[in-house]
């Protein structure tokens, strides 16, 4: 049996690893929040499918797909390639609506339905509400910082013109 060369491990063939997001994005705060949102939304979706509150399953499914799309969009740096869409504002609106919707359907699932899957979906929904609220708070602070920079630059542009 031949020993592999020392540099052969570092240059692994680009198979399924090319689909995985980079490690630096997974280590970032935004990457971790989007991953947590995706996982929680998927768990809530599965709980609602197994419960008698199956009418609530569409909201977690949509939030799962949106969080997954933004996770891979930020990981592959689509936000830098497509400048026509203001990504932080889109992400902020997604987080605000998701937090409100999860809070509302979690209250309904916990108070109205008696089966265990509905209760579990409600508890995970409250946890998802907190995660989405943290995400929109951080995104809101980034938006405010950006808007303050934009307002301070506009008088300088007028003077230069």
Automatic annotation (TrEMBL):
It is found in: Membrane. Its main location: membrane. Pfam families: MARVEL. The keyword Disulfide bond does not apply. It is a multi-pass membrane protein. Keywords: Membrane, Transmembrane, Transmembrane helix. One of its GO terms (cellular component) is membrane. The chain crosses the membrane at residues 33-51, 86-109, 121-140. The keyword Membrane applies. This is CKLF3 protein. It comes from Asarcornis scutulata. The lineage of its organism: Eukaryota, Metazoa, Chordata, Craniata, Vertebrata. The gene is Cmtm3.
